[in-house]
Write a structure and sequence with these properties.
Elements lengths: L4 E8 L2 E6 L4 E5 H6 L4 H8 L13 H4 L4 E7 L3 E6 L6 E4 H6 L2 E2 L7
Antiparallel strand pairs: 1-2, 2-3, 3-7, 4-5, 5-6
This protein binds zinc ion.
Length: 111
Amino acid sequence: MTPQPVELRLVAEDRLQIVWSDGEKRQYAVRELREKCPCATCRERRQAPPPPPTELAVLSPAETQPLRIASMQPTGRYAYAIHFSDGHDTGIFTLESLRTLGEAVDSGGGG
Ligand SMILES: [Zn+2]
């Protein structure tokens, strides 16, 4: 049985924390989630060959802004749709994938 998120919280503008029903606490850089976006468009983009080194990547104005999560909503029982501040909102992150992303953090408060 897949653990369920019991608490979702932005611990920083660009950092999401999820506490899971099995007690695990994980933090995710918003940038990482955006880069791991599982939607078809992003998958295709990741599989595309990198541009030749003579070509500078041009960032759109949205891409130069700090990336944030605009909203995050449960989709079905086993996934979350994340709407990023750059306008991208087609990424559906399954709970399984969220368990493999980010990094586990210690819940100990140290006193
Ligand atoms: Zn995407």
